Amino acid sequence: MKEKDFEQQHEWLWQQFETQVESCLNGGGTPDAAFPERYRQLCGQLSLARQREYSEGLVARLNRLVMLGHHLLYRRDTGASMQRLGQALAEFVAALRRHRRYLLCSALLFILPALVMGAGSYLSETFTYSLISTEQAAELESMYDPANERLGPERDAETDLAMFGYYISHNIGIAFQAFAGGMFFGLGTVLIVLHNGLYLGAVAGYLTRAGFAITFYPFVIGHGAFELTAIVICGAAGLMIGHALIHPGRWRRLDALRRAAAEAVKLMYGAMFMLFVAAFLEAFWSSSSTLPVAVKLGTGALLWLFVLWFCFFSNLGGRRESV
């Protein structure tokens, strides 16, 4: 086909495409549903023009339209992704407030054993060994030795990215155990949350007694705001599942389970995001031994305030609701 005939055949599409693109880019609007198909047609016509070695002016014009279309599509996709993320966060916060009774039960299952075990381990070394072995205790002292270049599990200084992956895998494993434990009528969830609270208390009490508070608390306070809160939230999701199985109400047990799971999943999505943030902080921030203790503690305190505000007092999820 001659270049002139090619232009006459597709000129209407090019003009329509250019008008819509410039209108959307200048006015901030969004393209219609047929825009992606027109964009694909334009890409094919550009490829054809190059293959047939049409004039540089025509190829340049089509290339310009393709670039403008790509920019508009990319901008639209980014905006849509941010909108979906915002909606997911709003649903997560709203679900937290609707089901705060489960959240409170999970928090008590985690915090109270941690406080009791922490106090007991601080006052008595024998109390600590009821939960952790002497080998584990020695390993903990090695992990939080102030002389270490990196705090936490032993690793080379150049493996922060590998540890990031390890922390994600480890934390999400605990989270899913707490959630899936709800299928055993909530008993599995209770045991997982209870055990993690006891273990945290034993570690904190033992290291405080051994004189490693100066490294342990600055290490955990930053990522702990996200990680510990997420574990409690996953426990709440598991308790919802367990309660639906034990007390389905007017629903059949399977229908009650489905309804509870639909709500519990909203909590899990938010908790997974929080665990991702926690793993990043633990690998790249918490493990550093060069940052001043005051900076770590101050930042950690701010992160705890932010997480509590975001989950319970921000306007993202609307006013607090109950079921």
Structure description:
The protein is mainly alpha-helical and 323 residues long. The protein folds into two domains: 3-84; 99-312, no CATH class. The protein contains eleven helices and no strands. It has helices spanning 3-27, 35-51, 56-98, 100-123, 125-128, 134-143, 160-180, 187-210, 213-246, 253-286, 293-312. It is elongated and about 90 Å long. It starts with a helix and ends in an 11-residue tail after the last helix.
Structural descriptors:
0% strand, 323 residues, disordered C terminus, single chain, 2 domains, 79% helix, mainly alpha
Task: Offer a quick outline of the entry.
With about 325 residues, the chain is mostly helical.
Mean pLDDT, as a whole number? 86
What's the multimeric state?
single chain
Computed Rg: 28 Å
Q: What percent strand?
A: under 5%
The computed structural class is mainly alpha
The major sheet is characterized as: none
Outline, from the CA principal axes? elongated
Percentage of helical residues?
A: over 70%
CA distance, first residue to last residue: 69 Å
**Run of helices and strands:** HHHHHHHHHHH
Total domain count: 2
- The number of helical runs is 11
Poorly predicted runs = 319-323
Overall number of strands: 0
